[in-house]
Amino acid sequence: MLARRWKGGYNKAPVVINSRGYVYASAPHIYDFKLGVAPPGIIEFPGVGPDHRWDTTDGLVMNASSNDVNNAAAYPIRLDAAFSGDWLFQVSTRIDMDPSGSNYCSDAGIALFDSPPSGRWEWQWSQHPGRIAAQNNCKNPTLYGQTDREADYDQALTLDGVWVTMHLFHFHSSRACRYDVTEGFEDWERTSPLLKSHTLRDESFGEDYYCGLASDDDDDDMFFSAFRISPL
């Protein structure tokens, strides 16, 4: 582990770098996706789905219709940072009815990995070693751990054109993770109505971990407005 101090005095904490060369995140930060380009601190990983683009109105737009991510290399949006301990990861996304009018498969996902952003990260609709993921399985928010999953099927996301905020908690201290969904645009303080909450015990990373975003909307565009990280 290396430490790099800022120039100009001691008013800033040292930048700490892990053994793989990634700087540890240390403070809350919001990544604004409505800049028309990737915001600072974001890695756009090449050659993996889903297709994505940046828009000043719609934010980060993803579409998996021609680049299916199911059981394949994915997560084109990755944070250029390492995490250790207890953190909260939040993203604001919109739920839309499918063009068929029969389902609501916007299928946004936040995932944590124990391998660095330079590695192969896969989208799975199941528990998977080395990954903890919050994924919206059409109407049903689901939390996938490394060995277990938590979901129910009461159609919590039967919404059309409605913004929700996904909250993925990683508790190294208590060896658990939790996924909450609230109805609201960029509801960072979690004051909007809670739509669903899932918890998995004995599912956390003991060492460094990393974060990425993806989706598996096979029918049309889906949208992220912003992403927030915060230590707990």
Offer a quick outline of the entry:
The protein is an all-beta fold.
- Total helices: the number is 0
Query: How is the biggest beta sheet arranged?
Result: 8 strands, antiparallel
* Rounded radius of gyration (Å): 17 Å
**Structural class estimated from helices and strands:** mainly beta
The helix content, as a percent range, equals under 10%
> Judging by the overall fold, what is the CATH architecture?
Sandwich
Mean pLDDT across the residues is: 92
Spans of at least 5 consecutive residues with low confidence: 1-11
The total count of strands amounts to 19
Gap between N and C termini: 22 Å
What count of domains describes the coordinates? 1
Strand content: 35-45%
CATH third-level topology: Jelly Rolls
